[in-house]
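Marked as duplicate of an earlier ticket. Keeping the data here for the record.
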Amino acid sequence: MTGIEEGKNRISDGLSVMNALGHLLGQRFSERTPQWTDLGFPVIDRGKYAIFPLAVARTLDDGDYRRGDRLSDMRRSLQRSCVHFFGGDDFHAEMELDTEDGYGRKLADAGAVVTGPPWECLWCIQRFAVVLVHSVDQQRIWETLALHVVPMDWVRYSPLNAGTKREASRYRRIIRERDAAHVVWSWPLSVPDE
């Protein structure tokens, strides 16, 4: 059977996406947001952030739809490879994402599969954070695996000039942008009308 017949569809190779992100973002620091489509992978380009779909699968019909078992092996394998090539591990990750606050809370509310502490390992490339997100849709029919590339301040806020009005304004803008982010996607990607 093919992947589609089995109810599982691999869209992109996550390690290849990570390598491309490393080349695009890691060469030198830039304030410009890159053209996500230049990487050559399917992408949901949302301006300041992007979602790179890796796989989609129908959930198993076993009653526990939150588990997301169909893509678990793929997620674990990619996470191990990313730890090997880009650093971090399950014991002391480069950073972990908290499901109780910020972008982690947004992902958990949207159906992200919580894998246990540390919840998610994420990798930093210049001013961006790359998060491997495994989630189950609200209808509990599809599970998805994707790399979310978001501004670093969405997951780890670092004040530039603590205590100033300008910094307070910057913080409010970061929170507003993060809270407005749409983290859910579906496959196939819709093509905007031209």
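See parent ticket for discussion. The helical segments are 14-26, 72-86, 102-109, 165-180.
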